[in-house]
Design a protein that fits this description.
By secondary structure, the protein is mainly α. 78% of the residues lie in helices and 0% in strands.
């Protein structure tokens, strides 16, 4: 991947975050279904994917800055975060339009959990040194929990 492709991908990710936040503002949590366990799981997953997306954006900015200064130790972390952000954004988008997830949505949620687990593992070695990596790792862990809770 060359620098131009990377910057285009990062910019696209940041634009998607803005759209997701705008969508979250127009679709308040609960959606009138707060008493239904399934709907609560959907709400928690929406919140977790949105939080994971925001933490990923911070981690991406930090990794880009570090790499620009010559610290290539964060390259693997950055690669994982970019992939995970794309999957959490897709999951948020799909889950936001459903009150009861269908089979394909549940498959996407399982994939989201896998990407978040991998991202958490990629961020873990850097978590003590970089606050954004720690925050991303923790957000990924919470997203995995929300994915697993919805699957249960």
């Amino acid at each position: 991947m060359d620098r131009r492709d990377f910057l285009v991908g990062a910019t696209t990710g940041l634009a998607t975050i803005a759209l997701a936040k705008a969508s979250a503002a127009s679709h308040p949590s609960g959606g009138g279904h707060a008493g239904h366990a399934q709907h609560e799981g959907v709400t928690k997953l929406r919140e977790a994917t949105l939080a994971c997306d925001a933490a990923a954006a911070d981690c991406i900015r930090h990794c880009l800055a570090a790499i620009a200064e010559g610290d290539v130790a964060l390259a693997d972390c950055l690669s994982s975060v970019l992939k995970t952000q794309a999957v959490t954004q897709a999951t948020y988008s799909v889950i936001s339009s459903e009150s009861t997830p269908d089979a394909p949505t549940r498959q996407l949620v399982a994939v989201c959990a896998e990407f978040c687990e991998a991202c958490s593992a990629a961020c873990q070695p850097h978590a003590e040194k970089h606050a954004s990596c720690k925050a991303c790792m923790e957000a990924c862990d919470r997203c995995v929990q929300a994915c697993e809770a919805l699957a249960a």
